[in-house]
Design a protein that fits this description.
heterodimer; A: mainly alpha; 14 helices; B: alpha+beta; 18 helices; globular
Chain lengths: 315, 586
Amino acid sequence: MLRFLAKRLGFMLIALIFVSLLTFTLMHMAPGSFLDAKRISSGDVSGDEQASIDVIAEMEKRYGLDQPLWKQYLMYMEGMVAWNMGPSFQFPQMSIEEIIARAFPVSVTLAVLSVALSVVIAVPLGILAAVRQNTWWDYGAMFLSMIGNSIPAYVLAVFLMLLFSLKLHWLPTAGWTEPKHVIMPVLALGLGSVGGIARYMRTSLVEALRQDYIAAAWAKGGTFNKVVLGHALRNSLIPLVTVLGPQLARLMVGTVFIESMFRIPGLGQYFTLAANTRDFPLLMTSTVFFAFVIMGMNLIVDIAYGFLDPRIRFE
Amino acid sequence: MSRRYWPKVLATALLSIFVLTGCLPGQTKQAEEPPKTEPAAQTNTPAGPQQGGTFRMYIINPTSMDPHIYTYGAHIHRMGLSEGLVTWKDSSFEVAPASAESWKISDDGLTYTFKIKQGLTWSNGDPLNARDFEYSLIRAIDPKTWAGAYASYQGAGILNAAQFQKGEVTADQVGVKSVDDYTLEIKLEKKNPIFLMRLAEVWGLPVHKATVEKFGKDWTRPENIVTNGPFRLTAWTVNSEIKLARNENYKGPNPAYLDEVQLFLNPPNILSYENNEVDSVEVTAADIDRVREKMGNELLSTTTGVINGIWLMYGDNQVLMDKRVRQALSMSVDRAKIAKIVAKDTVEPAWSLFPPMFKEWQQYGLKYDVAAAKKLMADAGYPDGKGFPEISVLISYNIAATDPFMVAVIDEWKNNLGITAKIENLEWGNFSQKRFAYQEGDYAGFFNFSWTSPYPEAENYLRSNWGLDTVWANGKDYKGYLDLQNNKELDPAERIKKMEEYRLEHASPEGQKWIELKAKVDAATSDAEKTSTYQEMAKLREETAAYIPLTYAKSFRLVKPGFKGVDPNPFLIGYPMYFRSIYVQK
């Protein structure tokens, strides 16, 4: 187990360095710069050449942009390791570690709740479809999940807003101050993945139900609870965990459309802002951070396999 | 723990997050109620607007809440959190007293002496005096304040301010001094008739020294901030929401009516207006038909200072360097028709580089005249567009609603002049790089621009942007200019000097004339001479047609019928002038 962990962590480190190098290179190859874009987008288009040139020189000095590229790269990396990444370009009074510390919990909450919602709906749906295989229960459940799967979250979000806000007046369209603000974004994100998860659940449970030990359990007079939920379900969870891990990680690093539509102060908004405005420090850190979260989640999934199926050994 | 308990455990854990913290993650803590010194003076007569109510609107997402760093947050300060020596009365931009109850201007127009009203306090109850303003004005100019960002102070002419920004003189040589607790003196470099109007901008707002020094960059957080305006900041959830409450310690002449202002950070959503979650929202062309039909009586439309148009690019290809060609391109576009049909009257047709509030300056613009345009093209060697290459119009999809408009412009060129053009739609960063780059090969064209002066001054539309000194005789001359601009070997001061010399040498004949006229204005001894020279410049600029105006932006805002006093800022689309004028009609 320890050797497995050490090996995986070693690979993670190499992959992260690779990701950071790639991001850094792409970032510097992309046309446009924060200073150029900002000059006009902030309404600050003074024709005062003197001021422009002075400000640009000053900013380059402050952010180390006047240094050779390899030095800039090492600066970023050093900052990330020391968790002291300095200010972002566009939030001049906020450090990057502060931005992540503020926005990451928001995205995690949203991710955990919406994955929990999809599991709560999808697992029973999958079980139903598997147990009542090839009946109208099965077809109905799978048809519904197919619809869910084919509607993108942002389309669903608009539909939810129209229904719950405009027609029924039950919920506010957007915000992030009261628990009721969580409902619509979680529905929008969660319902979409119900279909996929239910299908995985169904397939793997059908497979498990065909095993000899299940036939034996039924023969011994086992109840539905014991046989299906006790034996078969546990053994069919592996594909589910495989899907859920990365899904959770993807949502945790921010969902651009949903965050922006519902005005949720999560990571996704910062990330798109950073990309649009060429906010290099924020862009660089958030990309590496995303890679780290996704790799970490995959590692957790791998470890979870071992607990779900004792036959899997770590090497 | 048995397996069957895990769902309960998870649910309990999540619930406890909400219960324990009392809020969702990512939210900032609410500010503490400040100690009250004494109840604010009730300045309202029973018949007038009453105190009370909450106003909710969308606003552009601010990235800092320091008035001396130029971001949209600085404007939120000006609109309610902070109050300078003077303020604008309303959207007329007329100067009115604020923290200063009166002022005197010396006969030479160079020294301003402000009497600060006695008994004013900060939101925490501390007294406000002249030293606070001395500290704040110096801070706004000090490059250390906004290191790595943009200064909110931009050339209003305070003595030695520019030199201090460049580090050539020390702070005590800047022309801002407190004479005693309630007297502040500001000295100017040279006479500036709009200095008082400029002083009401964000850089003129005071900040609380003790708070700034104690908390550093965190001083603007709701739990730390101390301000002197009619409102105070109570919550700021970055990228989501800002809350202001009436400052009960405000004793100045411009008190607030509203109890609270809630600012939802963009993007705006009309659904939330229809669902009664916001009281005001900006409307775009996409929604305008539906809004006019369903909520027309709640729609407020404002003429703004924003000009949209196209800007000449320079490079190897010389086809657009002929003034007659550019004039023909401008004169062949029927803006009025396009504004009506394509833009559904959400914009006004523009023929001048001055916005509608400067009517007398608009007379020099070109006119819609297809016959004349055709003749100009023939004179330039392209009768009926024959032999004219395809040109490009560079746009960025971040600039709202100009796309269908530009398609219509190109259509007019095709129908009236027989020439073809294509739209090149680029991502913002790409666009911002390409528009000022040297264009190699056959490429010739314009890029789409949009600009407003931040305050109503006709001269600013002449001097800030669209100068002719960078209109070249030959597009190839632009290369040398760019090389100078990007030459990091030279220090900034030297670079600027060299660039000036280069312009003198290589600018087009119109550019040379422009430089001459600019010098004439600076040396002018009478206002009449100044104005007539400016008029000459305005005329020259429109004729040169290197910057072709197309539309003036209009602002459309829905306001719930219960609210009065929403006064949109014509020079800052999407913002009212001040929150203090808004009240609930009982």
